[in-house]
Amino acid sequence: MRTITPLDLRRSLGQILDQASAGQRFLIERDHRPLAVLVSVEDAQRLDEDRQERIRRSLEAIARISERAKVDRLKYPSELSAVDAVRLDRDRDEPGAEDA
Fold it and tell me: Residue 50 has what DSSP assignment?
């Protein structure tokens, strides 16, 4: 990402717009403080993703986490304390544990 000032933007607007449309990203700063980012239309569309799509992806992630929790509950029965579960996991990771 290339950093420019508002003055740079005014001086070379056409050239900067051409570069942005080709995929170059620009961080516009004033007094070393970020003000805005100039990106291509394609990048902006990805950033401005549809709200329903974000909700759908979030729900899918929650479902994956829930499935993983079910698998872990089978691996570690609920009567195990947290300490016992860590010990069990550690024992499984020991070299030669498969041979025992």
Answer: -
